[in-house]
Amino acid sequence: MASVKDFSVEEKLVNLLRLQKIDSKLDEIQVLKGELPMEVSDLEDEILGLSARQTRIEEEINGIGEFIEGKKNAIKESEALIAKYEKQSENVKNNREFEAINKEVEMQQLEVKLCEKHIRDANEELAEKIKQLENAKKMVAVKEGVLNHKKGELEKIIADTVKEETELNGFSADARAHIDERLIYSYDRIRTSYRNGLAVVAVERDACGGCFNSIPPQRQSEIRLHKKIIVCENCGRILVDADLNDSVDVK
Fold first, then answer.
1. Quick check: helix, strand or coil at residue 240?
2. CATH 1.10.287.1490: which residues of the chain?
3. Phi, psi at residue 201, to the nearest 5°?
4. Dihedral-angle region of residue 210 (phi above 0 means left; psi in -120 to 50 means alpha; beta otherwise)
5. E strand or H helix at 204, and its extent?
6. 172: helix, coil or strand?
7. Looking at the domain that runs over 4-32+180-247, which CATH code has it been given?
8. Rounded to whole angstroms, how far apart are CA atoms 251 and 249?
């Protein structure tokens, strides 16, 4: 096989045109998929974020539960101390000891009240966190439902087009192997510059098939000779004549 450099300009144009038609068919498949791949990816990211939020809320609920349990244990300890001090008060020998014991009882009673307040506040916060958790779970369920629907649509399209897409990717790689790097670089640069992905276009009705800018007769004659790569002076796309364009087909 001749090396890429040995191909004539006409052969290079044919290979470029073939590559363009292959890539255009691949573009059609991507259009068929539409925004689904991006939507699926966005939904997956959103669900990850919501799941992480749900986990954080669950951890906060567990933390509040542990806090309440700690305060309940503190109340039990204070009540035990109160019972102990009250028993001691039965055997006091003087007012000084009695007052000291009463002071300890009062301190533990205050500790009980403070713990009870902390528990009430924590229960209010717990109720709010439980509501947040329920909402987070509902949001995850809703998003997962949408995601499954979108995935189903995308998987059906992929199943319908996977064989054709695989073949076209193979054809694209083969076509690229027959074009020198400089032309491939130019081709890819032009393709990415336009939403329709057209880098190689035919002259149609005396105009560029990409931007519809008028092509002078002399320029059209040069294009038909296939002696050099000619680009549209307005949009920079590579130009080919209609006959060459019609002769190249990708089945």
1. strand
2. 4-32+180-247, 34-175
3. -135, 155
4. alpha
5. strand 200-204
6. helix
7. 1.10.287.1490
8. 6
In angstroms, the CA 81 to CA 104 distance is 9
Give me the pLDDT at residue 200, please: 92
User: How far from the centroid of its chain's Cα atoms is residue 75's Cα?
Assistant: 50
Longest dimension (CA), the chain: 126
Q: Which residues of the chain have pLDDT under 50?
A: 1
CATH classification code of 34-175: 1.10.287.1490
Strands lying side by side in the sheet with 207-208: 207-208, 200-204, 238-240
Question: At residue 72, what is the residue type?
Answer: K
Beta strands in 142-199 (DSSP E): none
Q: Encode 82-92: b = buried (16+ Cβ within 10 Å), e = exposed.
A: beebeeeeeee
**Per-residue pLDDT, 195:** 86
Give the span between the Cα atoms of 153 and 181, in whole angstroms. 38
